[in-house]
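Hi, here's the filled form for the chain we discussed.

Project: internal
Contact: R.S.
Residues: 82
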Amino acid sequence: MARHIDIAPEVLARIGEGQLAYVREMTSEDLARAFPGGPELPPGLKLFALIGAAGEPIVVADDRDVALSSAAEHDLVAVSLH
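And the returned structure, exactly as it came back:
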């Protein structure tokens, strides 16, 4: 039988922090909505964001391999988000 465990959102956000990062394909419009205050980009760009376990942007690139390489440079294990 499965047990229900309550975990505070701030604790959950720190799981994997400094160890995991997420690579997510985004458009420039998605990026602007997800991370307001970032640089203005032309609409319609296909981008790949490397996002820390707690949701902070680390790198944005126009090539998935560049985002993955950045994860390795930061000693992070990269996983994909769909």
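Let me know if anything looks off before we file it.
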